[in-house]
Amino acid sequence: VAFIIAILVYYNYYISQMAIPMWDGAVYLENARDWLKNEPLAHTHRPPLISWIIAGVWSILGEDWILAKYIQMIFTVGAGVLLYLTLRASKGSLFALGVTIPTMLNPQVFFWSTQILTEGLSLFFLVLTLFCLKSEKQHHWFIAGVAMALTFASRYPILLPAIALFIAESIARKNIKLILYTMVTLVPVVILIVSAVSVKTGEFNVA
Questions:
Q1: Cα–Cα distances in Å, from 130 out to 39, 95, 107, 147, 167?
Q2: Helix, strand, or coil here: 33?
Q3: What are 93-143's pLDDT values in tens digits?
Q4: 128, 82 contact by CB (below 8 A)
């Protein structure tokens, strides 16, 4: 708990110093406004989830880019908590803490999570996928399918490591029922995501 509080303070201080978003961040903000105002997307090839979240926050709290600065931080710290819980279940608290702290303090993880980008968001849903697949609760495999789909919506290429995790755990479990649980949520949610973008833009482009 103390580490989470400390990392949140560290993130908050660093993010508060950001006067303007970097180019890619501005693009996601522009797309968020387009989704919110029901206007054509300016950048059709960008993954939609971060812009959807920003648009949702703006619809409640008002359109202010400063609010969007802190979204990735929340998801990255959440990924750290999930990583710790996942590792603790199989390796113990000390090992879990020894992996989680360096991961959260990694300069690449920290920097990109302070920007209005997709790295922290996709990391959260990727780790959530792992957490659900490692769980002994069978209904968590339903959630794993949703998490994989949202990994795709947050950063298209990160679906590949999510699928790799799914394949590895499926081979280890050898339980066709669990595989079907995940597929029954993964496929429809991916179709919904692709359909939403296609209807909005007239195409689905990941280039």
A1: 36, 17, 23, 9, 11
A2: helix
A3: 999 999 999 999 999 999 999 999 999 999 999 999 999 999 989 999 999
A4: yes
